[in-house]
């Protein structure tokens, strides 16, 4: 499994499970809400320091980001079904993005662009 996808999906799951907005998470991490959005969309990578800050702020075991399941996090959360469905939809979109990127990379195999040849 792609680690960037795993972290982004767990961020979404825990944010929703804790009934937090991106702005509230941003305040705890001392970043902008736009930055949290980029973390959740896999546009920017979350640094180890920010990941640890997130885990400390929400009392989450860091190992959950490696071994946890975002759907189990949401399943056990005390939030409305609508919020769970929205979080699941966001995670599904992340998975689609991951697969689209994977397909795009496979299309590049054997093609040269400039001085690079993709293997």
Describe the secondary structure blueprint for this structure.
Layout: H1 3-17, H2 22-29, H3 33-40, H4 48-57, H5 64-67, H6 70-75, H7 81-107, E1 112-113, E2 116-117
Antiparallel strand pairs: 1-2
Helix pairs in contact: 1-7, 2-3
Describe this structure in words.
The protein has 119 residues and is mainly alpha-helical. It has one domain (3-117): lambda repressor-like DNA-binding domains (434 Repressor (Amino-terminal Domain), Orthogonal Bundle). The chain is 66% helix and 3% strand. The protein has helices at residues 3-17, 22-29, 33-40, 48-57, 64-67, 70-75, 81-107; strands at 112-113, 116-117. β1 and β2 (116-117) form a beta hairpin. The longest helix is centred in the last third of the chain and has 27 residues, at 81-107. The chain is globular and about 35 Å long. The mean pLDDT is 89.
Helix content: 55-70%
Q: Can you give the mean pLDDT?
A: 89
Strand order of the largest sheet: 1-2
CA radius of gyration is 16 Å
Q: What's the CATH architecture?
A: Orthogonal Bundle
Number of strands: 2
CATH superfamily, by name, is: lambda repressor-like DNA-binding domains
Determine the CATH topology: 434 Repressor (Amino-terminal Domain)
Largest sheet: 2 strands, antiparallel
Alpha-beta content class: mainly alpha
Shape: globular
Q: Beta-sheet strand percentage? A: under 5%
Write the H/E string, N to C: HHHHHHHEE
Query: How many domain units?
Result: 1
Q: Helical stretch count?
A: 7
Quote the distance from N terminus to C terminus: 21 Å
CATH class category label: Mainly Alpha
Low-confidence blocks of residues: none
